[in-house]
């Protein structure tokens, strides 16, 4: 029996037959299922685990050479085998004095060359040294980008915009996002902005993503139209004052009309969804908050990068534990979903960010080393969703408590509210924060313990309602608790924690988390549909589908779309 089979056997014969209520009655067990690192507590006592299972997790990590692999990845091996690339987002936050060698070259000087340019440029914008075309200060930033070139930045922006220091640093400034190719998103992103005070950051690793390039063109037109209304028509100089880009495709950014001084590069060894600590995130976030403040995000992430490879006891390694538990829930317990519940309004975009990082990375089943019998995994990445608590309690928690399937939850909370620093009545804020966190603790317990028929009867509930009021319990969750309020350092830690847990799960499953072939097919088909629509702009009757390879149902649907437009 290999170690994965041993874990499956132990779960089937022991843990699946033991209610969490019983496991939690063991004080000695509970004491050991909690660990702390650098201001973060991870409590996994409400998971279906015990000391025996944790020792099996250790064997699993050792037998799969997990720690050696993690170290090799951070040292620059081409772990992304299907694209022949290194996986080195960790190098983006490595201290300047260290070395990371890729293809015989130390990449750290390149990282700092870009970071220094970002620092100098963003400081010149913030101080008013670099001005817009009409010499007005650039107070607004619009980030154009999608997927990994958008979600992580929005998560960090939202997480920090109510942090006391973050508010001071960003006073008088705005940061907006344009991701969707929907024209309504464009209106929302640009609404009320004064072009003379607005700088655009076009974020695209490839600079070929259809949505981003279209949005960038729409914004370029908007800039020129707005300036025309003001009587200015020097397109080249106007655009050079208002457009910047972050990309690995410097040829295309040049063709787009962006001055190379305002293009910030990165490298193919940074995956799109892992690029928030490259200039993709650091440039716009530094424009909004200042470089030195955002550098703390990099420091926090680096702390977790180090912890990942240095702490070889799985019971003390936060990202490894998260990854092992994720693997266990999906592959052994066979749970197919995961709810991410931050008890922190500032993390409202964290679930959306993790959805992309996790599901675009591990949402696949093709094995890296297939054999004659197996090319595909049977169960892998769960479906991930989430909303801040307490809002989620008044939304989907009914199903989490009494639905037909178990949905493991990950709760994230802070011992201090961002609202406390600088508050006129800090005691009142603490009181409100305690109210919020009371729900965090209560949910954890309710999910695990549930409520038995006997308890319901003892409460004197009418017989016909009794079975409605039973909670099965035995629903697992884990808790992440930060010592401080959400700040740039621990937001960087949180970012890296979830990046690395995805990697650990990917290694255990034997898949490559760093490619995303699954998004390609839709892109190709969208291009084909687009060419049909372009060819038939005015034709609301019989569309010309020559050369369009799709079934009649899809063609009918497209025809209805055009016909509806003809009736408007
Ligand atoms: O930064 P780019 O090249 O525009 O890509 C945007 C996103 O599109 C994807 O390639 C596919 O969704 C992501 O991996 C990436 O983050």
TrEMBL record:
Lineage: Eukaryota, Sar, Alveolata, Ciliophora, Intramacronucleata
Swiss-Prot/TrEMBL keywords: Gluconeogenesis, Glycolysis, Isomerase
Family to which the UniProt record says this protein belongs: Belongs to the GPI family.
Cellular component GO terms, alphabetical: cytosol
HAMAP family documented for this protein: G6P_isomerase (MF_00473)
Reactions catalysed: alpha-D-glucose 6-phosphate = beta-D-fructose 6-phosphate
EC number(s) reported in the record: 5.3.1.9
GO molecular function: carbohydrate derivative binding; glucose-6-phosphate isomerase activity; monosaccharide binding
Class in the EC hierarchy, top level: isomerase
GO process annotations (BP): gluconeogenesis; glucose 6-phosphate metabolic process; glycolytic process
InterPro entries: G6P_Isomerase, G6P_Isomerase_C, Phosphoglucose_isomerase_CS, SIS_dom_sf, SIS_PGI_1, SIS_PGI_2
Pfam families: PGI
Pathway assignment: Carbohydrate degradation; glycolysis; D-glyceraldehyde 3-phosphate and glycerone phosphate from D-glucose: step 2/4
Coiled coil: none
CDD domains the UniProt entry points to: SIS_PGI_1, SIS_PGI_2
Claim: Isomerase is one of the keywords in the record: yes
Name under which the protein is recorded: Glucose-6-phosphate isomerase
Top-level taxon of origin: Eukaryota
